[in-house]
Amino acid sequence: MSGDRVDRTAIEAAAPAAREGELVVYPTETVYGLGADATDPHAVEGVFAAKGRDRDKPVSLAVADVDAALEYTEPTEREERFMREFLPGPVTVVVERGDEVPDVLTAGASGVGVRVPDCEVARRLLAETPPLTATSANVSGQPSARTVDALDEIRERAAVVLDAGETPGGTGSTVVDVAAGTIHRRGAAVDAVERWLDESA
Q1: Mean pLDDT of the chain
Q2: Are 61 and 34 in contact, with CB atoms under 8 Å apart?
Q3: Strands (E), the chain
Q4: Which of 36, 152, 172, 188 has the fewest CB atoms found within 10 Å of its own CB?
């Protein structure tokens, strides 16, 4: 996957679309993601509708870097250390959400998953938008897409699709609750995550 395939014009089209509540498809270090303004309840509802996703299943948010995450979340000192160790990367960290994060994103829970994709194109986009939803760009129950040609009807629902070629794929992100020492989903980098949790306990 090459960021060279996505020019500045494409980012300049995707960023305002996301800011205006529309859906955008963006690459990550695993698969293509479906993004909408994660702080806008109406935009988040659009993600659930496009995917046919149950409303009781929370969606994570993606940001350009850890500093941006701190504007919308309230991690403890230990959680922030973990975030700076593993992000950007294929890890989702569950931390206390801030007031700007809507109930619909978290299914009413007090915590929210935070992602900083290890993907240049994604972070270039995220640097120009509010936090975006971090969920795979596919109808729920269907395979994730590693190329834009593999996108299902999600492609028709998105205002802009950022085509960066084939993504690396592999396992999804590891989802971890650092405070509880719990790994909710075992994925990429799980061994390193487990070592960190053990050593910092």
Answers
A1: 94
A2: no
A3: 24-26, 33-35, 60-62, 89-96, 111-116, 132-136, 160-161, 174-177, 182-185
A4: 152
pLDDT band, very low/low/confident/very high, at 6 (cuts 50, 70, 90)? confident
Q: CA 57 to CA 108: how far, in whole Å?
A: 10
> What is the per-residue pLDDT across 64-83, written as a single tens digit (0 to 9) for each?
999 999 999 999 999 999 99
Separation of alpha carbons 43 and 2, rounded Å: 28
DSSP state of 173: B
pTM for the complete prediction?
Answer: 0.94
- What's 146's DSSP letter? S
Question: What are the angstrom distances between the C-alpha of 9 and each of 37, 75, 129?
Answer: 20, 35, 15
131 and 72 Cβ atoms separated by less than 8 Å: yes
35 in Cβ contact with 115 (< 8 Å): no
